[in-house]
Amino acid sequence: MCLVLGIETSCDETAAAVFDSSKKVVLSNSLFSQIALHEKFGGIMPEVASRSHVEKIDIIVQDALDKANITLDDISAVAVTQTPGLVGSLLVGICFAKGIAMAKNKKLLGINHNEAHIYSSLLSDDGFLRNDVPFSHLCLSVSGGHTSMFLVHDREKYEVIGQTLDDAAGEAFDKVSKLLGLGYPGGPVIEKLAREMDFKDFFDFPRPRDRTSLDFSFSGLKTAVLYKLVELGVYDLRSGIIPGKADEELQKKVASSLLVCIADTFAIRIKAALKKFPDVAGVSMVGGVACNKYIRNHLSGVCSRRGKAFLAPPPKFCTDNAAMVALVGALKAERGEYSLFSLDVGR
Ligand code: KG4
Ligand code: ZN
């Protein structure tokens, strides 16, 4: 039996999971979300994040082991997110993983967080490895920290074909939510308000003009929303939101228009990528923003009209989690690609 313990602390989730690579299934997937700690700041405070990881890491790792009904002696390797992420947060996971590897004489695997998201589409709802994921496929990976498109040739074989030139799409949801006084994280609340407006587009926020590029840019969209709020007289550039002005109706209209605009932007880029790589079998969407049902349905329609499969993992494997880290660790372990104990935060 080959059991890989996965540890993820790159941002605001302290997570641990166990993947059984002989049965090809996630045995446990434990997580402590720091959302409540960062809510009052309207975004992630790096120092608060690292301190919370230090407080929770041993509890979460123990929880993952207990739920898998194993002890540290049973695992064969520890996989830990090495990069990218908040340096202080990454360090907590890396030091903890190194400690386990040294004390228990286990192999160590440094994992790229983006790579873990890419292969999260291999995980089904019950944690078993899907064997129907077609290769090669396009992967749109969208979270609060990144927006990228990959051409995924096979397991552990992929290349970047597009990325954001400035902000990530999740960041656009989070920043607009903050502008509207709706709190952090923005994606879920924006989706909820947009649904109440039947996903209508009221403000026609700007879509990408270049329809052939595979790169993204969301900073202009953020600014467009800001100036729309100024124009509507609900936002002052010096003092921020004018109390009592941004009523619920307006919040819903902005939320709905923003979501439709972002979904359209993804559709434009996916159509361009399918033109450039017509032989791919399908498209996957991963990362926190892939929890969004409206975007999933929209992109699924784009793909089915072109005869391509569309897949996205269940929400628990879209947002940051350690199951995807343990899975990529297991794929690397199969090939003997272990890391050295000198493993440090990557660049
Ligand atoms: O992957 P993730 O958990 O962490 C990062 O690596 O950033 O993604 C978090 C991001 C946040 O920006 C959050 O607003 C967004 O995912 N998100 C959503 C939804 N749920 C989470 N965005 C749109 N719709 C959602 N339902
Ligand atoms: Zn992530």
Structural account:
- With 347 residues, the chain is of the alpha/beta class.
- Helix content is 41%, strand content 20%.
- It folds into two domains: 3-123 and 318-334, 2-Layer Sandwich (Nucleotidyltransferase, domain 5), CATH 3.30.420; 137-312, Nucleotidyltransferase, domain 5 (2-Layer Sandwich), CATH 3.30.420.
- The chain contains eleven helices and twelve strands.
- The strands form three sheets. The chain has a five-stranded mixed beta sheet with strand order 3-2-1-4-5, with helices on both faces. Strands 8-7-6-11-12 form a five-stranded mixed beta sheet, with helices on both faces.
- The chain is globular and about 65 Å long.
- The mean pLDDT is 94.
- Zinc ion binds at residues 113, 117, 143, 287, 320.
- The site of zinc ion has 5 residues, from helix 4.
Short description:
By secondary structure, the chain is α/β, with parallel strands linked by helices. It is 41% helix and 20% strand.
- Largest sheet, described in full? 5 strands, mixed
How much beta, percentage-wise? Answer: 15-25%
Assembly form of the protein: single chain
Instruction: Give start-end ranges of low-pLDDT stretches.
Output: none
Strand arrangement in the largest pleated sheet: 3-2-1-4-5
Instruction: Give the total of domains.
Output: 2
Instruction: Give the beta-strand count.
Output: 12
* Level-2 CATH architecture of the largest domain: 2-Layer Sandwich
